Amino acid sequence: MELVQYVYTHVRDGVGRVFIAGLLTVLGSTAVIQSSALAQGAGDLVVAPTRVVFEGRERTTQLTLLNRGSATATYRISVTNMRMKDDGGVLEIDKPDPGQNFAGKLVRYSPRQVTLKPGAAQAVRVLLRKPKGLADGEYRSHLLFRGVPDDAGQSVEQTANDTDIAIRLVPIYGISIPVIVRHGKTELKIAMSDLKIEAAREANKPPLLKFKINREGNRSSFGDLVATYNSGSDEGVIIGQINRLALYAPNSFRTVEMQLRVPDGVTLKGGKLNLTYSTIADAGGKLMAKTELSIP
User: Fold this and answer.
1) pLDDT one-digit tens code per residue, 217-255
2) Yes or no: is domain 2-183 CATH 3.90.79.10?
């Protein structure tokens, strides 16, 4: 019996997604568990940039893969498609949701597998090909860079006799980055709502600012969130920040939790909390939405 289990951990968009796949093989009647060595951990692979966006006349770009580990590693490159959950997590899917367009058929990439010595880097070229009659809108898929274990071809029978059950766990680490194609007329409207401050779930932890980012239009948002507190007698102090956060189309909203770091001597009382969501600096730092919360 073989079981492959994928666990996705979503951090924020623009910061590569990390997943672990466990391969378990069972034989016989008695359990023996072994953990085989990895070709590389996810932390040893660096992919830059961590986000690809084709707009306007852009047709080609280049990614750089770097092996920061101490051993030679092989990485396989493939296309996957993902759905963003309301809390920002991601799930691999086979069919697009209503209003979602995959970009896999629009992009080509080379090479499809690389082997890197410690400290070595490899360029991966990504090419966009738009067919005639392509409908306006945003198309999104993800490039997946998955480590290939050194002993992937080893037989389980080599680690157990015929009377044992051998459970062989092979973790497979990888990183995925979004590849977004915007064609023709695309629109985006962002608003933020439902702001509230809650005490931390654990002792000695900072309070949380909870809110929703609401999206309209046919394209995704991507930017930096900044929370500023103003008591009315000062220019305000930054008490919370989340960088490079995305809300993918076709999702209409995303729930967010931001830890608030209140400086010594500042009390959140009788003032206002101002929240802004702006494009990243490389995209001009344009304000997409702002709102405020009055604190009694």
Assistant:
1) 999 999 999 999 998 767 789 999 999 999 999 999 999
2) no
